């Protein structure tokens, strides 16, 4: 069985409206974030993965299975959508346990798995309250419990951190990390770029139905050649160091940092720049730190997609 | 079908039961189902009241009267003749009636209203100036007559409107309602075959429709019988096939739910707006008697009509629409009717299963 989620030249059109176009992806285990503004195709990709919609062209494969095989697929996949899907009148506990009964688990197994899932999202105290009366954050958590209760290998989560308070958000991120560490695919979408930066092993940047870039965020950044990389250098003699940089043809901009204890350098050739830094260190400059400051998702997104920025 | 499928079906039925039985927006279905019960109950209460009044008249009568005695009275007969034949009236009252004598003049004429009864029939006479000027005869309704009325209400209202629209409300909601609520993915994201999901939902709808409408049929029957003596009911049940008729009505109710349920479940997968399929199926069902022989068979009412225990006789004075609805030019045998209806329902469900297999839901804001 493959351990990849594969999109092979997948397009989806809703009549004349483009959902996603010519998507080719091979997603390894770990935390993968889909990033993009509204209408960029994030949820369409997730719905395609789970068979809620079918591709107009191309093929989707989840660990070797197609979404047309729900009987096998959903033993491996859990999907938490943006929308509540609780049957009316059920408590949080019943939402999860009735869901598990559909998997064919008997009452005892369902009970055990339900409590395990509810504990993982920290909702035990409210488990016997009607789900309809839950707050937004609690509904988000019970949806998460529902999607991971059967211990899937692929967890697809649409905006999973929306509505969570900071403490629960941190706990939830820790949960995603633990799942990813255990070999699980955690595919999540988010508008909040700094969050994505913190938790993702890889990102898929979406724009207007196309995949603008994918992979580890630093490797994506290094492939963007038309935007020089910006590097912050903390050192004891920034003015002197600036004059050294101006002599290099790959350095396009040097600015003194606001606190006057560092330099912001833009270079078209990061490899040559780091070699230069080695020489500078040998020349007696006391360099405290050298760190790229625009290889986060936010900057990458801005360079690639420009004006269509998601929420920062 | 293996045990996993049964487990899944029973889980779906359990989840759906709450929605089908206790949905607030389904309240009108209960009202529709209970409307004929209320009708027959009210009718029985009125009859019980009138029967009590006639019985009191018999007790007060000077002599025991027969139907023949009552119907021997004619207009113009003198009051004395009436008294001689029927005795002093058990109930009598005098009213003054204003009678016109010219364009601007009138006189007041005292009118005596005399009532007689033999216990079942009632005779009301208006006597003015010592002579009978008006006669009103009312007969107590027999169980046979009421059975006929029951058949009419069952065929014209209960089958064609109550069960029809009730099934529309229950079965169209099974998929379409969840798409509107954005909650259908609860099922579509589980390892349940789409066909199994459809069967589970259909059975849940069928359970609700059958319980609601069969209970109504039974209650209608009970409400109808309330007005009769225990001996009359016992005779009707034992000797006049009352029990068989009741069983037939219950059977027709269940089969109607099976048939219309399958059609509206399929319609819920195909149409957003329930009015379009409802109107189309309603017209198709009404026009069944005039359809070509082959097309007739793709109709639910075609089979149900032949299963109803009473055939509505076509009266020349009947309005054309009622005549069309009542006519059954090609009655078929009971077994063919049951088999045919089940076959049509299965065909419709098979077509729906193709659709549900390809069903996509996309209610995202993405």
Give a verbal description of the structure:
The complex is a heterodimer of chains A (312) and B (366). Chain A has eleven helices and 13 strands. Chain A has helices at residues 42-49, 70-76, 92-101, 107-120, 136-148, 166-181, 193-199, 217-222, 238-246, 270-282, 297-305, and strands spanning 5-14, 17-27, 30-35, 57-62, 77-80, 154-158, 185-190, 202-207, 210-215, 229-235, 251-256, 262-267, 287-292. In chain A, the strands form three sheets. Chain A has a six-stranded mixed β-sheet, with helices on both faces. Chain A is 36% helix and 27% strand. The two termini of chain A are 38 Å apart. The longest helix of chain A has 16 residues, at 166-181. Chain B has helices spanning 3-22, 27-60, 67-70, 79-86, 143-180, 185-188, 194-225, 230-238, 242-270, 275-286, 293-296, 300-307, 320-326, 334-357, and strands at residues 91-100, 106-117, 121-128, 131-139. A four-stranded antiparallel β-sheet of chain B has the order 1-2-3-4. In chain B, a hairpin with a 2-residue loop joins strand 3 and strand 4. In chain B, helix 1 (3-22) packs across helix 7, helix 2 (27-60) runs antiparallel to helix 5 (143-180) and helix 12 packs antiparallel against helix 14 (334-357). The longest helix of chain B has 38 residues, at 143-180. The interface between A and B is large, with 40 and 33 residues.
Core attributes:
A: 312 residues; alpha/beta; Alpha-Beta Plaits; 6-stranded mixed sheet; 4-stranded antiparallel sheet; 13 strands; B: 366 residues; alpha+beta; 2 domains; 14 helices
Compile the SSE list and pairings.
The complex is a heterodimer of chains A (312) and B (366).
Chain A: E1 5-14, E2 17-27, E3 30-35, H1 42-49, E4 57-62, H2 70-76, E5 77-80, H3 92-101, H4 107-120, H5 136-148, E6 154-158, H6 166-181, E7 185-190, H7 193-199, E8 202-207, E9 210-215, H8 217-222, E10 229-235, H9 238-246, E11 251-256, E12 262-267, H10 270-282, E13 287-292, H11 297-305
Parallel strand pairs in A: 3-7, 3-8, 5-6, 6-7
Antiparallel strand pairs in A: 1-2, 1-4, 8-9, 10-12, 10-13, 11-12
Helix pairs in contact in A: 3-4, 3-5, 4-5
Chain B: H1 3-22, H2 27-60, H3 67-70, H4 79-86, E1 91-100, E2 106-117, E3 121-128, E4 131-139, H5 143-180, H6 185-188, H7 194-225, H8 230-238, H9 242-270, H10 275-286, H11 293-296, H12 300-307, H13 320-326, H14 334-357
């Amino acid at each position: 069985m493959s351990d990849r989620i594969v999109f092979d030249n997948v397009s989806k059109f809703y009549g004349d409206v483009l959902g996603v176009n010519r998507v080719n992806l091979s997603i390894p285990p770990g935390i993968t974030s889909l990033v993009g503004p509204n209408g960029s195709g994030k949820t369409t990709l997730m719905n395609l993965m789970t068979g809620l919609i079918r591709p107009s062209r191309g093929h989707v494969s989840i660990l070797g299975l197609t979404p047309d095989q729900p009987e096998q697929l959903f033993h491996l996949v859990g999907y938490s959508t943006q929308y509540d899907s609780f049957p009316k009148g059920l408590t949080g506990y019943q939402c999860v346990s009735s869901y598990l009964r559909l998997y064919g688990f008997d009452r005892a197994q369902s009970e055990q798995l339900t409590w395990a899932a509810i504990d993982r999202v920290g909702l035990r105290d409210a488990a016997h309250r009607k789900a309809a009366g839950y707050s937004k954050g609690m509904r988000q958590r019970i949806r998460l419990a529902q999607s991971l209760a059967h211990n899937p290998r692929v967890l697809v989560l649409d905006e999973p951190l929306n509505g969570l308070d900071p403490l629960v958000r941190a706990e939830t991120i820790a949960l995603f990390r633990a799942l990813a560490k255990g070999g699980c695919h955690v595919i999540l979408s988010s508008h909040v770029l700094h969050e994505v930066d913190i938790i993702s092993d890889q990102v898929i940047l979406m724009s207007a139905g196309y995949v603008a870039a994918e992979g580890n965020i630093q490797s994506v950044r290094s492939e963007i050649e038309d935007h020089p990389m910006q590097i912050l250098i903390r050192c004891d003699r920034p003015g002197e160091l600036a004059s050294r940089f101006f002599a290099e043809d790959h350095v396009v901009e040097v600015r003194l940092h606001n606190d006057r204890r560092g330099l912001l350098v833009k270079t078209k050739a990061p490899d040559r720049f780091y070699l230069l830094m080695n020489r500078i260190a040998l020349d007696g400059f006391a360099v405290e730190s050298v760190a790229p400051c625009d290889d986060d998702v936010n900057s990458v997104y801005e360079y690639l997609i420009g004006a269509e920025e998601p929420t920062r | 079908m293996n045990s996993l499928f049964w487990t899944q079906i029973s889980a779906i039925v359990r989840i759906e039961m709450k929605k089908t039985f206790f949905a607030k927006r389904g309240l009108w279905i209960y009202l529709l189902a209970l409307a004929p019960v209320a009708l027959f109950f009210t009718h029985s209460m009125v009859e019980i009241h009138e029967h009590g009044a006639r019985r009191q008249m018999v007790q007060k009568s000077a002599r025991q009267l027969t139907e023949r005695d009552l119907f021997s009275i004619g207009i113009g007969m003198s009051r004395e003749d009436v008294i001689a034949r029927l005795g002093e009236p058990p109930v009598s009252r005098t009213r003054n009636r204003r009678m016109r004598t010219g364009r601007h003049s009138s006189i007041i004429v005292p009118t005596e209203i005399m009532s007689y009864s033999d216990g079942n029939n009632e005779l009301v006479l208006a006597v003015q100036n010592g002579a009978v000027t008006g006669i009103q005869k009312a007969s107590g309704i027999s169980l046979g007559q009421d059975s006929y009325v029951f058949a009419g209400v069952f065929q014209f209202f209960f089958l064609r409107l109550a069960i029809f629209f009730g099934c529309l409300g229950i079965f169209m909601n099974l998929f379409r309602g969840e798409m509107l609520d954005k909650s259908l993915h609860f099922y579509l994201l589980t390892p349940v075959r789409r066909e199994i999901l459809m069967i589970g939902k259909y059975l849940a709808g069928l359970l609700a429709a059958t319980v609601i409408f069969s209970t109504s049929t039974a209650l209608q029957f009970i409400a109808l019988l309330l007005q009769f003596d225990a001996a009359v009911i016992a005779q009707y049940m034992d000797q006049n096939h009352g029990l068989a008729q009741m069983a037939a009505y219950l059977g027709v109710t269940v089969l109607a739910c099976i048939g219309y349920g399958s059609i509206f479940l399929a319609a819920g997968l195909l149409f957003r707006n329930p009015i379009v399929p409802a109107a189309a199926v309603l017209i198709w069902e009404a026009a069944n008697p005039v359809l070509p022989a082959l097309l007739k068979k793709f109709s639910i009412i075609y089979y149900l009509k032949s299963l109803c225990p009473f055939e509505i006789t076509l009266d020349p004075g009947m309005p054309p629409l009622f005549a069309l609805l009542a006519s059954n030019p090609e009655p078929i045998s009971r077994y063919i009717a049951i088999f045919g209806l089940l076959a049509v329902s299965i065909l419709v469900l098979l077509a729906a299963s193709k659709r549900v297999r390809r069903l996509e839901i996309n209610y995202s804001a993405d």
